[in-house]
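Reposting from the mailing list since nobody answered there.

I have sequence plus structure tokens for a pair of proteins and want to know whether others read the tokens the same way I do. The first protein:
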Amino acid sequence: MNQLQLFFELGLTHVLDINAYDHVLFFIVLVAVYSFKEWQKVLALVTLFTIGHTLSLIVSSFGIFTVDSSIIEFLIPVTIILAAVYNLKIADKNTTARKHYGQYIATLFFGLIHGFGFSTYFKMIATGDQKVLPLVGFAAGIEVSQILVVLAVLGISFVCQSLLSISRRDWIIVSSSIVIGIVLPILFENWLW
């Protein structure tokens, strides 16, 4: 198995690992307010998140800038809760009519935070001087897994809203509230003070 494929698989499985569910929870709340019809907005958000986490992976992996892992482990659940609370705030609003600039900037910033979380794992598995190829493979694996998670969330959303007749508002409130309930213990477990 070549190095690119190995790190691609490591990136893919790192996100889809049942023990690393914080990333999946973030994507649930990121796209809970959207449908397949709004795929361009979803793609923009996922791409901005990927840009953010790839940038922080790069600067951390090459020792340009690092952040204490305890701070990142605290901030990751904060980003998830903030995204979920935002969903609760806009649950009654039409997403097609809104401007998304603030959400785009927040998603890019949240990607930076999550990327520093990935960088700790990446630095453990990528040893030696050759980091570019492993980094490309790892980032590509993460991106593919993110797309799979987003498609799954959009599919579940479609089933709940179209086939089970759950209102869009109720879907957003219930899915975001469940995520908050799962993430709050993680936040308290990683509390900095």
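The second protein, same order (residues first, tokens after):
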Amino acid sequence: MNNPKCALCGAKMRRNGSTSSGRQRWRCTVCGSSSVRRIDSRAKDLAFFLDWLLSKDSIAEKKVSRATFWRRTSWIWEIWPIAPCVGEVFDVVFLDGIWLKRDAVVLIACSRGHVLAWHLAQSECAEA
């Protein structure tokens, strides 16, 4: 059987009714703590977000309401990778931009295959 283990003591848990929303409740046979299993769907939500971000489809064309889209992807907008400070001097630095479909461009500075820095901008002009 696929019984979960207790987060406190590590013992097997047994079924203990259901919550008011209908989810299965589990109780530890040793320490008596109660919990509800949560399904981690962040990988699926990230794949959905990247599919939307890199395509030309709108949220409506993905057949998801705007509120549902925001609820599923709000945690992703808080992630912003920080480029490490290289501290080296390079002879040649290449600058290129990758356009995202929502009037934004990611400007990437690289040298001989190594990414040095990036910047999110609204255009590929010299001011960015």
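Reply #1 (J.P.):
I read it the same way you do. The CA atoms of residues 93 and 111 lie 5 Å apart.
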